[in-house]
Amino acid sequence: MAAQATASTGTDAILRQSIVGSRRFSNFLWATVSAIGGIGFLLAGLSSYFHTNFLIVSDPSALQFIPQGAALTFYGVAGTLLSAYLWFIAFLNVGGGYNEFNKETGKVTIFRYGFVGKNRIIDFKYDLSDILAIRAEIKEGLNPRRVLYLRVKNKGDIPLTRVGEPIPLSELENQGAELARFLTIPLEGL
């Protein structure tokens, strides 16, 4: 699910959408698969180098280190590094955050987590009076793109939906319509 909208307070003056970042099931699945594969290949390559079996399921110690063992070691290191990277970005929850539209304070807050460094926390705040429209971008084909943008005066378009697999068209339309209705601004692009 791209965003879950929850209205808090009794007057329905706040709309908050949670954005799923890199803590998605697919990232955890691929991090686990690449860790198992990477460690397996690395142990197979090391087994061929030291001529000692480090694996339970097979005996690669009889393989020649050059070229088979070296290739296995390379793939093992690459798979282990990929797994470490996926676990690291899941731990940081890169891309996760929320969109908050508050009629009480007259502010819009776009909050996201980034990588470690000076841009770890990305926090944009705008006045509701500066919001011009909600724009939907729908591009089908081999690389589909379905994104909602917040059109801000003198700032351009700011993406509101998550990055990754495209959300269903009906969900995009519903989110855009709900947001445009809540903010009483036009919805463009549909």
Provide a descriptive summary of the structure in words:
α1 runs antiparallel to α2. Mean pLDDT is 90; it is low at 5-10. With 190 residues, this protein is α+β, with helices and mostly antiparallel strands. The strands form 2 sheets. The chain has a 5-stranded antiparallel beta sheet with strand order 1-2-3-4-5, with helices on one face. A 4-stranded mixed beta sheet has the order 8-7-6-9. 36% of the residues lie in helices and 29% in strands. The longest helix is centred in the middle third of the chain and has 28 residues, at 65-92. The protein has helices at residues 25-50, 65-92, 169-183, and strands spanning 3-8, 14-19, 97-102, 107-113, 121-127, 131-139, 145-152, 156-159, 187-188. The protein contains 3 helices and 9 strands; from the N terminus they run ββααββββββαβ. The chain has 2 domains: 3-21 and 94-188, PH-domain like (Roll); 27-92, no CATH class. A hairpin with a 7-residue loop joins β4 and β5.
